[in-house]
Structures
1.
Amino acid sequence: MNIDTFNTDREAVAEIGKRVRNLRLNDTARQMSQNELAKRAGISRSTVARFEQKGEISLLPLIAILRAMKLLSNLNRLVPEDVVISPIAISKMQKEKAIQRIRINSIEFPKIPTFDFPKMPVIKIPKIKDFNDKS
């Protein structure tokens, strides 16, 4: 089954995990246990198991697995290095990404309404006579 026929990315990644598992178990040149693969790749066995069962893996452990199984060169077809972008295409991309600088003082901010609170009357509190004071 072609990976590009899957509806979701999760399905595609799970299929990749199953394919790596099938290669690990069935290809006589690569036949090894999960423990052996994990040891050769320098990762945990649980990472290998999670990848093979659910397709859950980060890029670095995936590269380590592919290297340990001598499959890393297959990435050359996935990401070819001889793709050249023309200078005109680069120029167009740079123009599209260019962000016009905006000066903060050239932006008109809306006026925030203010509210003046009425002044509160000052209340004078009479001094309480101190009974101990003899004056």
2.
Amino acid sequence: MRYVRTFSQALTVVTLTAACGTGFRSSARRVEIPVVDLMPRFFSFLDSSRKVDSTARSGLFRQMVVAADTQVYAAFTDGPSARALNQYLRTVVRDTASMRVLHRTLAQELPRYTEAFEHHFPDAVWKGVVVYFMPWFYISDAGGGRVGDTEFLIFGLDQIARRGTDQDLGPLFHHELFHLYHARVQSQYRGMSRNQIPFFWQVWTEGLATFVSSRLNPSASMGQIMLDSTMIESVAGRTRALSAEIRERMDSVSDNIHQDYLSGRPRRADLPPRSGYYIGFRVAEKMASRYSLAELARLQPAMVRREMDIALAELTEGRSAPR
């Protein structure tokens, strides 16, 4: 595969090309994921605004970076407000060099990430999906959602840059790409808000995405797989207690439960951030002894709950060792 950029005034579209045609492809048939790359516009803005005052700089950012994609910025950044933008432009200066390096890395490695994913999930269909690489005001390293008929997957190069330039971006890309795939093969909870989805399924989707990422990136460390170099130290030693707690709360639909175990800012001071990701990973690791990755992705909720209950009971009793 070779990496091709098609430029237009409005945006930069990145495609991957193999043989003839364009798109991310499996060997069996054409599969396309449009990638809208806003980073060249952002870097051009940086080069053009070095001697511009703060007020004019904000206006130039909106003109050069935001204007062609106002729908995306309105949906996923609330604007941004003038105050938020001014603060961002003062802060992002320290990360721009790293952002340039990571952007070059993505250009080189994206075909490899996509091929690895499609090797394991050849039935992936990406109709209605658009991937964005953009400055995202440090909101997140990755995320997104649906606007109309389009599902957006956003990678925030600014937040990613805070983890340094020597990181392997494969685990992050595969984690998020699997979420898109999983949501398409599992429709039971599609369109529901978080407080309508049982907690076991929330832990399962994050844990399985993390486990898939580990299988697709076998040389990555657990810190890289968890997208947090310090998590394992704070969570692994508490696996038994955390597994017991999560097992007790499997059917909860409380937002508070989600925040405690699956967010970066738990309400409870005694809980490590995102501990549910690690426990979910350990559950998927156990279940992988009986199911392939493709089978795990397609397990129905009732079966997931039964299998998860068994796995959490075993983890509570300490019947397995961490990776």
